[in-house]
Every structure is written in structure tokens, then in C-alpha cells.
Amino acid sequence: MYVLKTRIHPAWFVAVVAFVALVGAAGFRATPSVMLRPLHDEFGWSLGTISAAVSVNLLLYGLTAPFAAALMERFGIRRVIMAALVLVAAGSGLTVFMRTSWQLVLLWGVLVGLGTGSMALGFVATITGRWFVKHRGLVTGILTAGGAAGNLVFLPVLASLTESHGWRAAALTVTGAALLVVPLVWWRLRDHPAELGIGPLGGEYQEPKPIAPQGAARIALRSLRDAARTRPFWLLAGGFAICGATTNGLVGTHFIPAAHDHGMAETTAASLLALVGLFDIVGTILSGWLTDRVDSRILLGGYYFLRGMSLLVLPSLFAATAHPSMVLFILFYGLDWVATVPPTVTLCREYFGDRGAVVFGWVFASHQFGAAAAATAAGLVRDQLGAYTWAWYGAGALAVLASLLSLMLFAGKRIKPIAPGIGLAVEPAKA
């Protein structure tokens, strides 16, 4: 049996490796944004055609999460993450040989989408669920912040490489970075604390449960079927869909053109949006710390309500310059950007037990669908009305609705699981 001889619990080493993988995944997924114009200039493809690859990437990023979490249960975390990194490396590296737009969709859309989706927030839920009891919320916040850190680390470097050496240099850099992480994952990323003869941080040693001989797809779909029978799943998925709509879908996609409508330079608007990512790191880590101390339902209710209020105020803040009120909004909104993730992961674990990571993968998929719907809807509002104003108001109202959905999780009590290892159903509380 493994004897722990140091004061540093191995869970922290696992978390560090997971953080590195998550930082890389975020940077890999965001790379097409710096390659859009160079690809258009070289191949003559329309921006719509190139954006189709990005759309496929985003869709698979969300849909892969529950199946990746199921694969981690079936084959282990280490194997899945190593395979994901190889997929990313192949998808990025092979682009230097492409000649037609369908190859871009296949490589950046499908391969990189599948690879980065396997290292999405379902991966976070699996790591924290297996390796941490103490500090679980805090670690969830830190790992989630890795996504924002990835954008901040990779995008300036890749943009500079693209400008000075062309987009192929950026693509090959992503390939090299992904492959460099593979040996680190093999060395330090373990599937379960029991492999080392120890328990999770803050918990007791437990033998890992035997893995049922069933495919990952069956695990993921069965988890969805069982979870969908419960009220908490729909409340969490509904709230997280609104989370995606009010972040990536609306602000992430339309903030820059909306600011430009009011005379603000695009470079200034882009800088403000980058600040959101910076404050997001602080806000997500703080949210993880709070999740260890405050009921997650209260946190979600508060986060969504404050987000809704800020979006309702936003239309009055747009101007030709970045005045202090707008900067204050960016600071506040950045702190709240993905602060919802740690409490949502915690609640999935609370309600759905050992299948919490897989169920969270489905909840995360709803986030991506909400983002896609909002991106399209806001564009239609702008086209039809000539301004984004009602898009912001609508998003603010939706965020308040998400707050109510989160607080509705209090209206019930947990009863016995509806299936082995999953589905803590909720029935109305008695008067």
C-alpha cells in the first residue's frame, strides 16, 4: 500500500496537472479567433464558412462533456485526457496541409472540438469529485478559472505568432503545446486516490466501485434518462442554459459590435472584454471558496440576480469612450462571469451522487445550447430593430428567472436514489 510520506497530498499534484490541461484546452479552443482573417485572406473562404468550423467546435465542446465524463468512468481519467490531447494536436497540426474548407470543419471543428470538449467542465467535476472532499469548492473554482487563464495566456502569443510568422506557426504551436502536456498527464494524473492507497483530500480511503461492463454512450444516456426524471436536473439545466445565454452567447459574441454601434473603437471594446476574463479568474476562485462555506442554492440565486441587474443597466452605459461606469460594469460582470460553475458542480454531486460528473456534463451541454440560441437571437434583434437594447433587457430578465429557478431547489427534500448511484429525486416539502 502506498504510504504518504510528505505533507503535500497527491490530490494537489493531480489538480495542478488538471489545471495545466484546462489552460491548454481553453487556449486551443480559442485559437480560431486569431486565424479567421488570415484564413480568409489566403483561401478566399467567406467568414461565414470559416465560422461554421468554429460553430461545430462550440457545439461539440458542449455535447462531448457528458460522454467524456462517462469515458473517464469506463477507461480512466488519464487515458481519456491523453487521447484528447492527441486529438487536439492532430486537429491543429494537420491544418497546415488543408486546401478546402471542409477540411477546416473536420480538423478544427470536429477533432479539436472533441478534444477540448473532453477537457471541459465535466473533467473538472470528475477530478474534484474523486480527489477532494475538503476544499472541493475552492479547487473547482481554481480549475474553472483555468479556462479564462488559457485565453489570457495563449491568445496574445498566438496573435503575435500569426502576425509575424503566419497562421501555420500558430497552429503548429498549439500542436506542440498539446503534445508537451501528454507526458505530464501520464506521470501525475491518476484515476483514483485508491491507486495510491489513500483517500481523497479530507476523506477516508475507499476502494473504487467496480465498473459496469457497459459503453460510455450507454452510461451517459442512462445518466441523462435517470436525471431527467428529477426536478433538480431541469432547474439546474434551465439555469445553466441561461448562464450560457447571458455570457458566451450574448456578451462574449455581441459586446464588441454593440459598443461599436455607440462609437467605441473595436480595439477599446476588445480590451474591455479581455478585462472580463481577467476578473473572471478572481471571481471564480472566490466563488469556489464561498461554495465550501455557503449553500450553493443561495450562491446561484445571488449570482444570477446580480447578473440580471447589471445587464438591465448595461444599455445606458454604452458610449464612445470607456468611462468609469462602464469599467465598473466590466469589473462586476467579470467577477460573476463563470462564478456559477462551482456551486452548480457541487449541486450535481449532491443530487446525483456518483453520476454527478456525468450529469453535470449534460447540464454543461445546456449551457452551450443556451449560448448558441442567444448568439443567434441577439443578432436577429440587432437586424430587425437596429440596436441591441432589447437583447440586453431580455437577457437581464432571463438572468432573474435563473435566480428564481436556483432558489426553487429549496422547495423539496431528497429521497432515495431512483437508480443505483444516480438520481436523488425531489418531492415537494410538506407544509
UniProtKB/TrEMBL annotation:
SUPFAM superfamilies listed in its UniProt record: MFS general substrate transporter (SSF103473)
Q: Gene3D superfamilies attached here?
A: MFS general substrate transporter like domains (1.20.1250.20)
Topology with regard to the membrane? Multi-pass membrane protein
Looking at the record, the residues that make up the Major facilitator superfamily (MFS) profile domain are 13-414
**Pfam families, sorted:** MFS_1
Gene Ontology terms: cellular component: plasma membrane
Q: Where are the transmembrane segments?
A: 12-31, 43-68, 80-98, 104-125, 137-161, 167-187, 233-256, 268-290, 390-411
Q: What does the record list as coiled-coil region(s)?
A: none
Spell out the protein name for this chain: Sugar phosphate permease
